[in-house]
Structures are given as structure tokens and as C-alpha cells.
Design goal:
The chain has 16 helices and nine strands. The protein has a seven-stranded parallel beta sheet. Strands 2-3 form a two-stranded antiparallel ribbon. Strand 2 and strand 3 form a beta hairpin. The chain is globular and about 60 Å long. The relative contact order is 0.15. The structure holds coproporphyrinogen I.
Length: 348
């Protein structure tokens, strides 16, 4: 790849970079006063459905911090509205009629991106026209099992008991719902790439709730189906799993270029299990942003050290940034990651 390939894309492909790229999950969000200002005027749903506003909040963190990637401002549940799911946000997703029967599964319509989510595609075009050329745009979708959790349970939950019980009680129906979601997300992500997204990320936030055999049979099989359909798009594919330390061996065989992990898994061990062919993304504890400056720097250095000197590390938090975070701590983190990794020669 040429010398002016953005560091984020080079790192996704496991190529040498002059410094470790960094972006932050939920980097456009409530910890930024400028985001709260926009949100004080419009609902979250209006924000995600109005391309000018969604593009504006996507770009807000890029104006403050020299981040190495932008991520589309939307939500994992947004495309499901286009499939006929009656959904509100409060602030997390609330599904008015949770999906628990064959009839409800059959009533889900296949996603037609241009018809069902034209505002997302337009947001992507606006972001690409306005973002700096060296800051690639990440498009994203929910992992099939994570979407399944919200659809079956109807709202956020700690354990998503009803969804997990459904896998055992009605495995065939569960698989059918997961496959529908997997196919819809393949269509959705493919359309995002066609509109200009330069990398595609699957957020399987709740996959780590599953026992390994259930993870493999349901969550992983469905994610494979989505990723397999996207290989030919030629953009890096990122798979994020929360609480997946017991599931890493399963991920080594997944057709993703990058695996994102939470802070509970030390990156050195993650890289040993995943092997040299996969890049890793992560994994500072979002709580570390509340440390005094010297301690935050030490924690960032620890993550860089654990990631090692071989190519293929994208710095991130292990999960989304908390709304109470001080933006100055984010500025400090971005600077220290760039500066310390460049000084070490990153993976050059
Ligand atoms: O009031 C508000 O402003 C709404 C809060 C909010 C925001 C800012 C929600 C509702 N979604 C979002 C944006 C969002 N969601 C992004 C934006 C891009 C970014 O800057 O990163 C992304 C990538 C998501 C993805 C998302 N939504 C995930 C996967 C990532 C993760 O954090 O695990 C999940 C699980 C959701 C569900 C969801 N949507 C909103 C909330 C508060 C939640 C979490 C609910 C829960 O805890 O179960």
C-alpha cells in the first residue's frame, strides 16, 4: 500500500505504520458539550435520521482531537426500523412488540438499503465529503446476536435472559431469526461500503454472555454469514466482541481482518491466540480516563506495550466511552498514544 495510506487502514491490514492509530468507541456522544447541544434541540432518533445533523456530530470529535478514524453516527438498531420493527430510544433501544414467535420472525422484512435507510447512505456521503482525507470513515452494524438480544428481550438488560433462554428453548426459530438478521446486516454494510464507508465494523457487544458452544453455534455462525457476504467489498472488516476472553480461539478462524476486544483480555495473550494474520483493536478500560494524567499515560503505555511491536494494532477503549468522561482526558490519551508509539517506532 502507498506511503499515504491512512495509518488506520494500514494497521487494519497488518501493515507497518509510523505510529499507532487511535479512535474511540462512541467518540461522538454525550461526553462532548457540542453533542449535548445538538441533542438538546432534537431527539436521538431525529439526529440519526437527519443526514446533516448525523454528519455534523460524526465530525465533532475530529475537530477536537487528531483521531485516526471517524465512525458513522447511528445506532445498531436503526436499520431494524426499516425491517418493520417498531422501535424507540429511551435512551437505549425499546422494541414495542418483542419478537418471540415464528409469526413475528416471518413478519420481518428483508432490508432494502436504498429504500429503508437512505438517510444513512446520505450521511456517509456527507461525512466523506467533509472529513479530512487521512481520516477514514468506519461504517457499522450490530452483530446478529446482539440485535437478537434487543429484539427478543425488547430493551437493554444485564443478562438478556429471555434471549439466551430462547436459544435453548427454540433453537431452530432462533437460528432463523439470526440468519435473517445476518443477511440484513450484510446488505446494510454492503450498502454502506458502496456509499463510501472505508472499513466495516460489526458490534457483537453481548456475544460474550454465551457459553462457548452456544457462541459458536449461534452468534459466530451468524456473524460468519454476514462477514462472508462482505469479503468481496475490499474494505477491512472489524469484529468487536465484549467479554470474549473465553471465546478467542473461536475468533482466530473468523473471516475478519481486525478483532476488537474489551479490557479484560490482555492484548499480548489475545495476539498469541489470534496469530499474526489478524490485527487487534483495543483495549483500554473506559474507567482509566478518570485517572490523574500521569496514571492515564502509564495505562496507555501499558496497552501499547502489551500490543507489542508487530504490526496490526489499533488503539481504542475496550468498550464505549462513558458520558461523564472529561474531554481533556481524551485529548491527553490521543496525544500520548501518537507520541509514545511514534517514539518507539510503532511497528515500522
Ligand atoms: O441519548 C442519546 O444521545 C442516545 C445514546 C446513544 C448514542 C449516542 C444510543 C442509544 N446510541 C448512540 C450512538 C451509537 N450507538 C453509536 C455511534 C457512533 C460512535 O460514536 O461510536 C454506535 C456505534 C452505537 C452502537 C451501539 N448501540 C451498540 C454497540 C456498541 C456498544 O456500545 O456495545 C449497542 C449495544 C447499542 C445499543 C444502545 N443504543 C443506545 C444505547 C444507550 C444503547 C446501549 C443500551 C444497553 O446498554 O443495552
Amino acid at each position: 500500500m502507498s506511503a499515504d495510506t491512512p495509518a488506520f487502514l494500514a494497521a487494519c491490514r497488518g501493515e507497518p505504520v509510523p505510529y499507532t492509530p487511535i479512535w474511540i468507541m462512541r467518540q461522538a456522544g454525550r461526553y462532548l458539550p457540542e453533542y449535548r447541544e445538538v441533542r438538546s434541540r432534537v431527539s436521538f432518533e431525529t439526529l440519526t435520521r437527519t443526514p446533516e445533523l448525523a454528519a455534523e456530530v460524526t465530525l465533532q470529535p475530529l475537530r477536537r482531537f487528531p483521531l485516526d478514524a471517524a465512525i458513522l453516527f447511528s445506532d445498531i438498531m436503526t436499520p431494524l426500523q426499516g425491517m418493520g420493527v417498531d422501535l424507540t430510544f429511551d435512551p437505549g433501544p425499546v422494541v414495542r412488540a418483542p419478537i418471540r414467535t415464528d409469526a413475528a420472525i416471518d413478519a420481518l422484512q428483508p432490508l432494502v438499503a436504498e429504500r429503508d435507510v437512505p438517510f444513512v447512505l446520505e450521511t456517509i456521503r456527507l461525512i466523506r465529503a467533509a472529513a479530512p482525507g487521512n481520516v477514514p470513515l468506519i461504517g457499522f452494524a450490530g452483530g446478529p446476536f446482539t440485535l437478537f438480544c434487543y429484539l427478543v428481550c425488547g430493551r437493554p438488560s444485564k443478562e438478556f435472559e429471555t434471549a439466551r433462554a430462547f436459544l435453548y428453548a427454540q433453537p431452530e426459530a432462533a437460528m432463523r431469526l439470526l440468519e435473517r438478521l445476518a443477511d440484513a446486516m450484510a446488505v446494510y454494510l454492503g450498502a454502506q461500503a458502496a456509499a463510501g464507508a472505508q472499513a466495516l465494523m460489526v458490534f457483537e457487544s453481548w456475544g460474550g454472555l454465551l457459553a462457548p458452544p452456544q457462541f459458536e453455534r449461534f452468534a459466530l455462525a451468524a456473524a460468519r454469514r454476514t462477514l462472508a457476504a462482505l469479503r468481496s467489498r475490499g474494505v477491512p472488516l472489524i469484529y468487536y466482541l465484549n467479554q470474549g476472553s473465553a471465546l478467542l480461539e473461536h475468533l482466530a478462524a473468523l473471516e475478519a481482518d481486525v478483532i476488537g476486544v474489551d479490557w479484560r483480555s490482555p492484548l499480548g495473550a489475545v495476539r498469541r491466540v489470534l496469530g499474526a494474520n489478524k490485527a487487534v483493536q483495543g483495549n483500554l478500560d473506559p474507567a482509566a480516563l478518570f485517572a490523574p494524567p500521569a496514571e492515564l499515560i502509564a495505562q496507555a503505555e501499558r496497552v501499547l506495550r502489551e500490543a507489542g511491536n508487530q504490526p496490526g494494532h489499533i488503539f481504542n477503549l475496550g468498550h464505549g466511552i462513558w458520558p461523564q468522561t472529561d474531554p481533556d482526558a481524551v485529548a491527553r490519551l490521543v496525544d500520548v498514544v501518537h507520541e509514545r508509539s511514534a517514539r518507539r517506532g510503532a511497528s515500522a
